[in-house]
Write a structure and sequence with these properties.
- With 363 residues, the chain is mostly beta strands.
- Among the domains are: 109 residues, no CATH class; 96 residues; 41 residues, no CATH class.
- The protein is 2% helix and 34% strand.
- It has a nine-stranded antiparallel β-sheet with strand order 8-9-10-11-12-13-14-15-16, with no helix packed on it.
- The chain is rod-shaped.
- The termini are far apart.
């Protein structure tokens, strides 16, 4: 072989050029499975796209040539295989292109397995039929049994050996396993082997349906609403304030006892009429002063006895105070002269009481 090229440069004596691969050998080589890394993504609108319909990929593949040794080839416009192959059923996802490692190679890209249709790698005939394990997900041991786990852009779906199902949001996870938004990560939906359902976040908030306990719980850890189907009970708990409001009618009713209690002030207000009614005994009690006020009439009526009792003074006062029919003035201590009949049946004039002008009594 002539070691001097046309431009006068000299080829070293230890450099040998092997024979070109024959077409038969090239086809034979492409009929085996190849392992490579995605290095470029070609979208349908790209001028390099062949299909103009689906996303295509360039894949760097390392081949062992029996004559020329190890070499790297780029298979261009590779297409992804489809698990359904039907016009009305499909699955679409994208692969991750590798980054240059500064040494002429690539890293952190999708590692795929491809095969060339008919041994031809030209015109997009190379088909990506799958990928190799290259993930940041947890590893599994024999004790884990049959499992399924899916992780894409931070969304994780997992089914364990008991059939329990987990769907979890983690925000985007990069190729090193780092989450883009650690504070947002952790929202999950979980169904356990007994059919219990739980939706939760990383702040302790959750909604749970427990078919075993027959309860539905909505809680943030400190505050909760529990609907207990088994015991026919609803429990509402608040660690702070609790408010209820309605733009229209609101009712509160019970077929059994109803208790309202407070450790602090209690207020009942109405912008219109307020009615309190009991079909049996009605009791009011105050540990200190008790006051009843009205800007209009006040009526106290009983079908039986009425007693007003005070431990000290009892006072009934109005502009006109009427006892009974209320037509005769009530006498009061004073200097009024009155005419009466004495023990002997004779008229007697006495100075004892003065009649009241504001307190009237009658039968």
């Amino acid at each position: 072989m002539n070691n001097i090229l046309g431009d006068g440069s000299v080829i070293p004596s230890n450099f040998q050029q092997g024979p070109a691969m024959s077409a038969v050998d090239q086809v034979a080589m492409n009929r085996v499975l190849h392992i490579g890394m995605v290095i470029n993504v070609i979208y349908p609108e790209n001028s390099r796209s062949i299909s103009k319909q689906m996303i295509e990929y360039d894949v760097a593949v390392t081949n062992m040539d029996r004559d020329n040794g190890l070499n790297v080839s780029t298979y261009r416009n590779c297409k992804l295989s489809d698990r359904f192959g039907a016009p009305n059923n499909s699955e679409v996802f994208t692969l991750v292109p590798g980054e240059t490692d500064g040494k002429g190679g690539y890293k952190n890209g999708s590692i795929v397995v491809l095969e060339c249709l008919g041994g031809n790698s030209d015109s997009g005939m190379a088909i990506i039929i799958g990928g190799l394990f290259n993930s940041v997900v947890a590893k599994y041991a024999e004790a884990d049994g049959q499992v399924y786990e899916f992780l894409f852009n931070g969304i994780r779906q997992k089914i364990n050996k008991d059939g329990e199902w987990l769907l979890q949001f983690n925000s985007y996870i990069d190729t090193s396993g780092k989450k883009a938004n650690e504070k947002a990560a952790g929202t999950s939906l979980f169904i356990d082997k007994d059919g219990r359902f739980k939706l939760s976040d990383n702040l302790g908030q959750f909604f749970q349906l427990d078919r075993e306990a027959k309860t539905a719980t909505w809680s943030n850890g400190a505050d909760s609403i529990v609907i207990d189907q088994g015991n026919k009970k609803i429990t509402m708990t608040s660690s702070g304030e609790m408010a209820q409001s309605s733009q229209k009618a609101m009712s509160l009713s019970s077929q059994d006892a109803l208790n309202v209690s407070s450790q602090q002030d209690t207020s009942v207000k109405s912008g219109a009429n307020l009615n309190l009614e009991s079909k049996s005994n009605f009791s009011q009690k105050s540990g200190a002063a008790w006051q009843v006020k009205a800007t209009g009439d006040v009526q106290v009526q009983a079908g039986g006895n009425v007693m007003i009792q005070g431990g000290a003074q009892a006072q009934l006062q109005a502009a006109i105070t009427m006892l009974g029919a209320g037509s005769v003035p009530v006498a009061a201590v004073g200097v009024s002269m009155v005419l009466g009949v004495g023990n002997l049946g004779l008229p007697v004039v006495s100075q004892i009481l003065t009649g009241s002008s504001t307190v009237l009594v009658g039968t």
